[in-house]
Automatic annotation (TrEMBL):
The keyword DNA-binding applies. SUPFAM superfamilies: lambda repressor-like DNA-binding domains, Periplasmic binding protein-like I. The lineage of its organism: Bacteria, Pseudomonadati, Pseudomonadota, Alphaproteobacteria, Rhodobacterales. It comes from the Bacteria. This is LacI family transcriptional regulator. PANTHER family: HTH-TYPE TRANSCRIPTIONAL REPRESSOR PURR-RELATED (PTHR30146:SF148), LACI-RELATED TRANSCRIPTIONAL REPRESSOR (PTHR30146). SMART domains: HTH_LACI (SM00354).
Amino acid sequence: MRGVTLKDIARETGFHVSTVSRALDPRARSALTDEVVQKVSMAAERMGYRPNRLASGLRTKRTKTVGLVIPDITNPLFPPIVRGVESVLEPLGYVSIIVNTDSRRDRERSQVGVLLERGVDGIIHAAVEREDPFFEELRRQKVPVVTVNRALDAEGIPAVVSDDAEGIRAMVRLLTNAGHTRIAHIAGPQQLSTGVERHAAFREAVKEFGLKIPEYHIIRSDRLIESEGRRCTEALLSLVERPTAILAANDRLALGAIEAINQMGLSCPGDVSVTGFNDSEVLRLIPPGLTTVRVDKAGVGKRSAELLIRMIESPEEETDPRTVLPIEVVERGSVAPPPKD
């Protein structure tokens, strides 16, 4: 049985085929009246019409697909980003193909290769490291790419990120206002833009607030996961002059820090205060409730998708090299004044 065609809908509604085509195209229907669009859309739905993406792709040389590269699909940071992306793509007739890299460069290259083989019109990349020569190959192939949440050091690939510097500054301010002067920092991996920028922001903020932080109170994690937060915290709390507060580069490191504090017979925030970065609703349910920086996850996803669509459909337009979205401080129960010596 053959599928329903635009000609079938045209006969059913009495409109010309070109009018039916425009009515079913989210980008073209604005030229028609709401009555025409509604009549055509209802007829298409009633008749079971499904657009032939393959035929359309042959005409337009586009597949209406977008690749979405995620470093860790289990990380609660990324599902809201995906939702933000899809909230833009779906109304415009695009679909996303999501791939997970497990934060491995070899897997990232193979997965991006699969996306290119599928003929995606562009890529939104959330797993990028600061330096990756593979992106030069994507530019040579003229594949539109936007990075989200992270950025490349090299110019030429636009990024949509959160205000990392202001988020870290806000956490240092909050901790100093609570009376802390011995603040440690668990930095993120330095091959990631978030790790480097939050680390640099911490150094700037403690200087601004008049604190002298010894180098041994700054420790770098290898991955943004709980076990690394535990390892780093155990090292910090084994020092003779241990910190009274730990500012972690993300929430998973912070949760690992709290676990280590408890395992060492201490309490958070009674003995050591802890802050994170990113935020998710579940954090309020995990005692003592993590004080953190909330980033607009859906917002960065939405903005990255809007930017990529412009690059696909209007490649001659200039694009902003870096879009920075504001952050919000979320105070819960993991910060208190330092214990009295």
